[in-house]
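Lecture 7, part B: from sequences to assemblies.

Below are the input chains for today's worked example.
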Amino acid sequence: MSHRWGMAIDLDRCTGCEACVAACHAENNLPLSNPEEAAKGRAVHWIRVEHYYEGEFPDIKVKHRPVLCQHCDEAPCEPVCPVYATYQNPEGINVQVYNRCVGTFYCANNCPYTVRSFNFFPPEWPEPLQMAHNPDVAIRMGGVMEKCSFCIQRVKRAEGEGANPQPACVQGCPAEAMVFGDLNDPESKVAKLAKSGRATRLLEELGTKPKVFYLEKTS
Amino acid sequence: MATAPELLPYGQIREDLFRPLGGVSRRYVLTLVAAMSVVLLGAFAWFTQLRDGMGVTGLQRPVFWGFYIVNFVFWIGISHAGTLISAILRLTDAGWRKPITRAAEAITVFALMIGGLFPIIHLGRAWFFYWLVPYPNERLLWPNFRSPLLWDLMAIMTYVTGSVLYLYLPLIPDMAQLAEHATLWRRRVYSILSLGWTGSDREWHALERAMKLMAGMILGIAISVHTIVSWDFAMAIAPMWHSTIFGPYFVVGAIFSGLAALLIVMALIRSTMHLERYLTWHHFNNLAKLLLLMSLLWTYFTASENLTVWYGNEPDEMAVFGARTRGAFAPYFWAMVILNFCVPFVLLGVKKFRNITTSVIASVCVLAGMWLERYLITVPTLSFPRLTTATSFHYAPTWVELAITAATFAGMVMLYLIFAKLFPIIAVWEFKPHEEEE
Amino acid sequence: MYLFAEFHEKAQLTAAIRALKDAGAKDDDLDLFSEEPVELRRGVLDRPSKMSLVSVIGAVVLGTAVTSFVYFAQNNYKLITGGMPTFSFWATGVISFEMTMLGGVAATFGWFLWESGLLRKRDAATPVPLVAPGAISLRVRCASERAAYVSDVMYRAGADSIELKAA
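Predicted structure of the full complex, as structure tokens:
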């Protein structure tokens, strides 16, 4: 039986430290932004941490929710791409083929989670930052869409070595709030968590069948 | 009421309609040069965008579709002026269509040429646009036929082919006559394009039969094209896009704006080419009434779209609805209602106010209103995605988008000026002196 | 042997055509030339046409061909998108519709070129009359010994002028 990669994120553990964001940037050669471009909403992030506040200070409750590509089984972004630049690979990862992308923006408009980023300009790295590039990850040119790949390069390498893959965000999480694994393997931690009763999925009512599970205390 | 143009002597008709083709006035040259310079500015803006990247536009996350898509929908809407209207009038054999059809069909072809550019202009990597075409390649990669953008490509391709032929067919007899009267290069061009038309009854029968068939088919194509354009939005699950009303709503809006464009063009032709005897109040009155009808239909669709959303009170949709009716986009929304409903209703609905000047004023208002309508469909939905933390930077166009938008209008003027110099803007042969026997 | 007869009244033209056909002329021997379409009563000078049939055939052929091509292309390189079936008739239906229409349009235009004779090789020896604006010229093909008779028939029907042209 083939793999079906998924992730569980324990929101009761998440501290909102954004280490996952930093790890993702380093791992995936995300293009740098500058304050002006970021203010226009053009900074590229494959994962972001949303903060929710309940109540008034000092009686306040804060919730953090890291949002990355949900790798939906029935992803709304996929059928609308006219050139198959995004599709479901056999292991359940919603992949983005940068070289095929022509930049119609349609996938990003149809993503209910708004997790897709566009390269509005060709990426640039000031010297000597380009030396720190991850050689396993392609540099995207200007004009293409990009998004979380579940660190497919790590998944592939781990498969070759027979190890358990760990995306950069999972590895970087100091609170160990994120778990990655094979949902088809009933013994895996992520499969157990997905069935634990604490699990919910984001905007599940849309029928997108995401493969990222958020664990929360249900009271 | 002025004399119906059908009653003028035939030789006079031909002379009147062929006269504007000869010679260029100072005003013509100046307008053409002005239009061309704006088009060049637009071309430079596009070049800048290709060289530097899409970042030179105002697009941003989450508003990935902006002015370009608005213009795309707008111009495809304008294109419904012609073929659709002239096809309906031809099929119902409305006699008053005769001086209007060609002007309308030319609008269609040019609006399609302009509108059809925008899906390419808005691409992140526009130079790879041909990847959408299913051509055989060494990797055996085909495009994704399930994508509404592929539908769009096919629909627009069909519509362009159909409307170019639909414009060309009734031009053949006129060009055959022009070939007899013209000299030098014009004579050669007209006689090649008229394919050796002799005016035999076999040719006429084939032409009229083909026009009837084409009119029927073009009607289906035109309706499907704008429905498919609306499905670019409606197939997405974004709030206030995912709606079954979009197909007919867009078709009605397209005919509405197309009629407005046609009225403006006709008024310009009438005054600049001195065709007052051919484009009479009768024609303007009929078109103005049609415009009023479409305005009411459009209002009905707008009301039913917004009322269902408001009553349903679904939070994601209400965010967009609220922004449109009382939030950041409210000024545009209410301006749209005034321009598309109030102005035409008063100017065209009250008989005392309805004349050529007011129908042109109403048409200009309708064009502006319909442009705003497309803006209000595209941008607010994208500004308010379902996950509220991903909201909402204010999209504002940059000079690049503004220049390209201006260039489209200038491009329309330019193409129309050139067309009107090369071909008679009213189909001469359609004024048949040999009326059908009862 | 060709005869050109110029008419200004449709009633006279109709009478001339009827008289010629009574005298044994066939539809193929008669041609009208005018600067605008001339519509005669049914049965006077009919030009039967297969254009509707051809356009339907063109529509069906291209629609079917493209739908089959899409079926082939989607199955030739199977990619899963959005949980949709590999070949979805409904999603492809839009393309099928458009290509059906395109087939109809193209076939109509092609058949127009054929039926009107514009694209067929023309016999350069066949003379074409010059028609004055508003007039209708009737071209009759006949054997040279019958020319006098034919022109007499047409004069009696009301032709304004008659011209003889050798083939």
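Note for the exam: The radius of gyration of chain A is 17 Å. Keep this in mind when comparing with the next example.
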